[in-house]
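Table 4 source record.
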Amino acid sequence: MISQDTPNGEPPFSSSVRTHVHQTLESILRSSPFHSTRQLQALLRHLVELTLDGQEDRLKERLIGVELFGRKSDYNTGDDPIVRLRIGDLRKRLAQYYQSEESAGALVEIAIPPGSYLAQFHDRMAEPASHAPARVPEISPEPAQDSESPKQPRFSLNSKSRTRILWLAAVSFLLVLAVTLLFVTKAYQRLSPQSSIEQFWSPVFVASRPVLICLAKPVLYVPTEPLFDHYTQTHPGTFQTILERNIEPLPLNPEEKITWGYMAVNEDYGVATGDVRAAVALSIYFDRNKRQSALRIGSDCSFEDIRNSPTVIVGAFNNRWTEDLTSNLHFVFDWPRLREQGPKGRTWIFEVAPNHKSIDQDYALVTRLIDSKTGQALIVIAGLRSPGTQAAAELVSTPKYLDAATRSLPPGWSHQNLQMVIQTAVHDSAPGPPQVVATYSW
């Protein structure tokens, strides 16, 4: 490690060391693991600068949370581990940088050791100390024995001792073999490339908190009891039970007028079918990968929730978080279409079937933000209609679909923000396989 012993009153590091550290820092911030995440760029620069200036007293979890992440001065670090989560992500990205070819010219290795927020700097150009080969002691030949002298008895092992030694040797060999295989397996797992679906979800899975799945709950108007009573006066024997009134449609004459008092807002229902199917597909995928998830519906999903946990937002025109968090991106929802920003931007709109009672084709948008406005990884899965939402969820939870979708993406996409426009054919209100028709990453 680069020494920081300096005379009293002097900066803790020499000017040459500071120059080399700053050169390396700028290289790291421009690298693939860091260039798309402004939050981690600011965090690494903050830790390095305070270390170089000898301000160790400011490298405390609470102060970092206040100065970098906008937390209140008295916030509970146990309930809000934002600093620890971001430091963990920072260490992983530093490791990715120093394992890549981008670090070939780096003069200094910058590290944040576990249990500390103080940066350490290691001189990568220093030659390892040479060690002289161990001196092998000379062995003097034993003097020849006089043929007249009596022979000394040699030490011998009985069969039981030999068996015990062989058994111990075999056990030792097996233990060494097991440890070696375990080490090789772990090393292979670390070095083997991740699949497309693992790369897509890695910004979400890096957090220790459960993944939130947020569904919308739009306003739902239902007929009131007086309207059913009015109908039964002219249709005796119909809608006699509460079950009939809840599960059977009320066949009113389209020409008949009713007053607004016959309708009421129902707080117990209102989740879209496509949204529910999407949430189920995501929950199954998370469970298979041993990741905890939590469901939030309507007002149960607050900004405080999505600020403290990685989140999947489901739905577009029925979910206010989709518009709040994605309205300034490359692809946006603009009812009744998906639109590409810019004067030459493309548009996509669902196609209605000839019977005008269903749709033949739907479109959806998948948005993955590594460093969103919430300070957490955020994924938005939404279709123009319910089939599109369901198809988008199938895309991001099915390896073969995501493998095909990411083949055309540029290198380094797994460390970038990403949007994918999806097309799906619809048959009997069910979506077909999702097809990616446009992408954008930054």
